[in-house]
Amino acid sequence: MSLPRVRVVVEGRWVRVLHQESVVAGPYELGPIEAREDSAGAADVAAYGRALFDALLAPAWPAVTALAEVRAAAGAELALVWPADSDLHRWLWEAMHDGEHHLAARPDLLLAITRLVPGGARAPESQGRAPRVLFAAGAALTDEVIRPGAMFMGLLRALDADGVAVTRVAQVSAEDLAEVCASFRPDIVHLVAHGSVDEDGASVLMLRGSWVGAADLAAALSAGGPVKAVVLGACHSGAGFAAELVAAGVPLVSAMAGEISERACRLFARRLAGALSGGELVVEASAKGRRAALIGTSRDHLDWARPALFMAEGLDVTGPLVDPSAGRRLVRWADELRLRHKPLHIGRERILDQVDRLFTDGLGLLVACRDGTIRRTGGTRLLREAGFRLLRDGHVPLFVGPFSGTPPRSVRELLRELYFLAAEAAETLGAPPPRVYGRQPGGFDEAFEWIDALGDPDPRAARRVLAADLAALGDALAGLGEPFGPHTRVVVLMDGLHAFGDALTALLTMVRATGLGTAERPVPVVATASLTEDHGRLLKSFSEREAGAPGFAFPELAALGEEEAVLGFQWVLLHPWRRDREPEYQRVYVTPRNVPPGKIREGLRLLKGDPTVVEDKLYLAAQLMTLHELFVTDDDEAAYADYLERFG
Questions:
Q1: Which of 182, 195, 539, 606 has CB 3.0 to 4.6 Å from 223, enough for a Cys bridge?
Q2: What residues does the CHAT domain cover (predicted)?
Q3: 363 and 500: one domain?
């Protein structure tokens, strides 16, 4: 059940409080606001909140808490209504204090404080697909100016692992953003940027060196159609810009400010993420997250109150913002196809960008490789991430690997593996049994029997038949609805290609600029390989011969770069995933506000960009850094579980 909405409307110097169309209190005069954000402790924070409460809400509060609907729901949405350009937006109304409690922390009432902007757009209808989220930044995510926003982006990247279709763009201009939105058509955009105010007093954001106003940003965001929500991580002018963005046509904007070390900020963001993708009610979810962190604790600064929700006055928040069923179906498919894996994937963005552009760039063979071993490079995890992205985009990934035993070592074994995977994918995704070497089986049992009986054909002859069969599989899935369609193609993922023996020789005979398919129906191959181990030198010769040729790419599978490793490791530490391990593995590790980022970089640099340290060594390093007061730890999941046990 949604919280009853109580609107607090300010017109000039006068305040009216309404529930539905009935006047609850007012009009009365808005009181003087004598509050200072700089605080020296909990008493100052409470005094700031009390000053705001007295100015805006105190005369109406007895009538508000006496409303039958508020008592029945044990809570309310306090929707503050004033123009987008009002100076009132600069105050942290989320910190209001009634003399006993901050309103957000009252134990007897769940009080959500939202900001309604008159007019604005309603959220577009759901499209029956998994919601799409675009992560974008106006500067490099390692830029110290936008570091707090980059950390909140790390929190919301949980949406990626949970099955929401995600793309990520760094250092975008307004033009870049419009181009990506036109092609990707996101439902939700998380934008991190530096904010300021121009000479006319309007809020602006810095996007790749240029200042952009709310109207221009709204136009760029809607280039592919209207978006449902924007999560805005902007320093300095977040509140003003958020309100102006709603007025420019975005139905819901969350101004995500504050410090990641503040539990209330994290739980607000986590619950918001769940509401944006999982079908929860946005207002209630974010309010519960903040309340769970605040009850029973003192607040020495105001960061907990900085995250805020801005909404168009006509937006219906009594139901979920998105339909979660499509996302849940996608997650189930990914699990059955062995594509999802914890923890949150980090790094390799250049390689993953190439995966995203397989078809637009006409890549038939993409091999992430290196001289020397590829152990401890995270290659298998990279392929899983690539496969999950491809599935979300409506393609059919066939993941050949990883192997606990022997990988395919002949043409016959390779074909059997591909046809088995094709049959499993068809069965999982709800398609009819695929063709097996040119023949259509009557059912899956017959398909598996035929696959098991495959011979050892010539690779060139096998390629023609395989290309036709995989094209037919893509066509069969194209008619199943979102995310599939006429664009659907099969993509083959191969883990540790250097160990394939004679199957590697056969594959290199079969592969073309269109992969294992045709120009009309390409079947790209994405693989990892060592260029020196086992049969890797054969692949090395092939890569040297084809380097630069259309359809072929051989990016290096090196250690993570220092900047992407440091940022990525901090993102992983925000999402505990080893619940089967000791308590130290079940906690979040965050940087306190007084620790210079350079100190964190020095500590995490010792992990040498090895992505596999997320299994163990990363947490040992985090524990040592905690002892040296470079990290603080918390258990967000336990805090929220305790809250639910207490309040339901």
A1: 182
A2: 47-307
A3: yes
Query: Which strands sit side by side in the sheet containing 490-494, from one edge to the other?
Result: 396-400, 490-494, 525-530, 365-370, 552-553
First-to-last C-alpha distance (Å) of the chain? 13
Per-residue pLDDT, 324 = 80
539 and 425 belong to one structural domain: yes
Q: Is the Cβ–Cβ distance between 139 and 171 less than 8 Å?
A: yes
- Residue 86 CB partners (closer than 8 Å, separation 6+): 10, 243
The answer to whether position 431 is within a domain reads yes
Whether 579 and 451 share a structural domain: no
- Amino acid symbol at 335: D
Other Cβ atoms within 10 Å of 581 Cβ, number: 13
CB 528 within 8 A of CB 556: no
Residues facing 167 on adjacent strands: 134
- Asked which of 519, 553, 587 is the last residue of a domain, the reply is 553
Mean pLDDT across 368-391: 93
Cis geometry, peptide bond prior to residue 550 (ω within 30 degrees of 0):
no
Confidence (pLDDT) at 418:
95
Residue 92 phi, psi dihedral angles, 5° rounding:
-90, 75
Structure token digits, residue 249: 């046509």
Is the domain of 610 the same as that of 525? no
For residue 78, give the nearest of 9, 11, 1 by alpha carbon: 9
The residues near 106 (Cβ < 8 Å, ≥ 6 apart) are: 98, 100, 291
Least confident of 76-85, 94-103, 193-202, 589-598: 193-202
Torsion of CA 200, 205, 209, 215, to 10 degrees: -80
300 three-class SS: coil
pLDDT in tens, 340-352: 888 878 888 899 9
Q: Which residues pair with 225 in a beta bridge?
A: 223
Q: Does a structural domain hold residue 322?
A: no
Question: Does the model's pTM come out above 0.85?
Answer: yes
